[in-house]
Write a structure and sequence with these properties.
Neutral Protease, domain 2, alpha+beta, Immunoglobulin-like, 32 strands, 17 helices, about 600 residues
């Protein structure tokens, strides 16, 4: 059978995109054919039920005769084609979703990710297809699919997976270009944003080149960064030759926000290798109707997050000091999640479909993000390999090995074999490490791993001082709030925290501490009037009933975790740090500017991992 998709998006005010699937060469035998709408999209592990946005379904024969269509499942339609060898199946999709998983049609642009827009003809998912797109006059069209024609824009995909994996944008966006490592990269930015085009081009080029230096290769002839500027973050979604990223229009300033933009950009670009090509065997070809379970998402996403931060450092886009500060921030966040001790990385990966994308009031107490823990465990694994081989091997070697043996060959990694392949690449026995931190639930001893790089991990309390007298630490309740009017309503009661022990629970609306009224704005200041160990009477509404509980306040966790260079670090530890961060020891220790001429000369001397 031949399948051609015709997308029409000319009525921008309706937010509806019309799709016609033209089928020819169908078997002449009398019968029926089913059309299937995906329930999820690769890269976002949640059943999203895209069929809920489909309307006006119909089918017609070659002579225009209406064919009977029956919806037989939530995402399947059966066409009674009879002896017809050619027919058209058409429908409309409501398109007002700027998310990276969505379809968005406005007066300014059309964007679509293929999964929520395209059905496939059952039994033909592996066959090549054509795509024709009709958009308003004057709009430019952007896609990395093979182009067959321009009037109207016409493309070819080798199969349905490829059709889904090449996002499409149209309109009149800002277009920039970068040529890095010999490969052209486009930057397509939809929406208004206050940014410096030259700076964005230069910084994206540095991200690309840092990734290229790691792998020594780029696996595609062209690449497009699709940026959508709006009022909020929606993150990014990786594709075979591009990425879609939805971000606030104001993300380019101040510097802290811009660094978030670079982190997401680097994360999604690293997916060009890790996930899209270095992948679990489960993740492709895809089953679009059911969950695709893998215990390796920690390596696909968490390891990618690790390199997203590290490559920004190696690209010179953040200083060694800033990189280590951000590691400390992530360690703090991790240590304040009780669920880290109840769910392993493999379990978190497997449960992604019911957990990560559907957080609830108890999530932090019973689960851990495979992004966050996977990032930090990857960091520890890298330092462990470097320490045990005296910097002869590293996680970089593991990623290059996986690229050569699996990604480049188009072969998925068998479930459970990631650790074995890491051992092959480095010669290091990682069995105990995986038993404790990947398959197991041991708390991560960050200090031990950081010492391999001559770094000390220290907790810091948020103390202000008056003269030589340290300020008293405030009491800690261990609950989080949301605003309802001017009242604080509990959203999370941390397991093991003072509030949870006292019986506070999500949904409680706090009214007073020791008889003194509290509001959302004043609750933090009120807690400062108490000290750890103080007993506090808390008045609240619970499901409409007035209650009072007594809580004994605790001590807050450290306000930050700092990483600093150990003055007594060994020579090999210093070499590890220099190779890892691609920076001289003086800069890591804070005794020299990472961008100074002296630092540049020192960096030339660093050993290679």
């Amino acid at each position: 059978m031949k399948v051609r998709y015709v997308v029409s998006a000319e009525d921008v005010s309706s937010h509806y995109v019309h799709v016609a699937i033209e089928v020819s060469g169908a078997p002449a035998a009398e019968g029926e054919i089913e059309l299937v709408m995906p329930v999820w999209t690769p890269g976002s592990y949640l059943v999203r039920e895209f069929a809920r946005l489909v309307r006006r379904v119909q089918a017609t024969g070659e002579d225009g005769r209406t064919l009977a269509v029956t919806k037989v499942r939530k995402n399947r339609w059966r066409v009674q084609k009879g002896k017809e060898t050619a027919f058209s199946f058409s429908y409309s999709v409501y398109a007002h979703d700027i998310s990276v998983e969505g379809v968005d049609l406005t007066e300014d642009h059309l964007y679509f990710n293929g999964a929520p827009l395209f059905c496939y003809v059952d039994g033909t998912k592996e066959d090549p297809v054509e795509l024709v797109v009709h958009v308003p006059s004057g709009w430019k069209v952007y896609s990395e699919l093979q182009e067959l024609g321009r009037n109207p824009p016409r493309f070819r995909a080798s199969n349905f997976d490829e059709l889904v994996d090449y996002p499409f944008d149209s309109g009149n966006p800002t277009e920039l270009s970068v040529r890095a490592a010999g490969v052209p990269h486009r930057i397509v930015l939809c929406g208004r944003a206050n940014f410096s085009p030259h700076k964005v081009e230069e910084d994206v080029r540095k991200v690309v080149e840092a990734t290229y230096r790691l792998f020594g290769d780029l696996p595609m002839p062209r690449y497009t960064f699709f940026y959508h500027a709006n009022e909020r973050w929606d993150g990014g979604l990786e594709h075979l030759a591009g990425t879609a990223i939805t971000m606030p229009a104001t993300v380019f300033a101040p510097k802290k926000d811009y660094e978030s933009f670079l982190e997401v950009t680097c994360h999604e670009y690293f997916h060009l290798f890790n996930v899209k090509r270095i992948r679990s065997k489960v993740l492709g070809p895809f089953d679009y109707e059911n969950e695709n379970y893998t215990r390796m998402l920690w390596a696909m996403e968490g390891t990618t997050d690790y390199y997203a931060h590290l490559l920004l450092r190696r690209a010179g886009l953040v200083t060694p000091k800033k990189y280590l500060e951000k590691v400390g921030e992530r360690i703090k966040k991790f240590r304040e999640i009780p669920g880290r001790n109840l769910q392993s990385l493999e379990e978190a990966s497997f449960d992604s479909w019911i957990d990560l994308y559907r957080p609830g009031e108890e999530s932090r107490n019973i689960s851990i993000s495979y992004y966050l823990k996977g990032d930090l465990v990857s960091l520890c694994m890298d330092l462990e390999i470097r320490g045990r081989t005296e910097n002869a091997r590293s996680l970089d070697d593991v990623m290059r090995h996986l690229w050569k043996e699996f990604g480049k060959k188009g072969v998925g990694i068998p479930e459970g074999d990631w650790g074995k392949e890491a051992e092959k690449a480095t010669g290091v026995d990682l069995g105990s490490f995986f038993d404790r931190y990947v398959r197991g639930r041991d708390d991560v001893d960050f200090a031990t791993f950081l010492r391999h790089a001559g770094l000390l991990l220290e907790p810091k309390d948020d103390e202000s001082t008056e003269g030589d007298e340290p300020a008293e630490l405030p009491g800690f309740l261990g609950v989080e709030f949301r605003r309802e009017g001017d009242r604080p309503r509990i959203t999370v009661a941390l397991d093991g925290g003072p509030g949870r022990r006292a019986g506070l629970t999500p949904g409680d609306e706090l009214l007073a501490f020791d008889g003194y009224r509290v509001t959302f704005d004043s609750v933090g200041e009120m807690l400062k009037k108490f000290s750890p160990g103080d007993k506090v009477s808390i008045t609240l509404f619970r499901r409409g009933l007035l209650r009072t509980v007594e809580a004994t306040l605790g001590k807050a966790p450290p306000s930050k975790w700092t990483l600093k260079a150990d003055p007594s670090a060994s020579e090999i530890a210093r070499k590890i740090a220099q190779s890892w961060l691609e920076s001289p020891w003086e800069a890591i220790a804070g005794r020299a500017d990472a961008d100074s001429e002296k630092s540049k000369e020192k960096a030339k001397e660093r050993p290679k991992a």
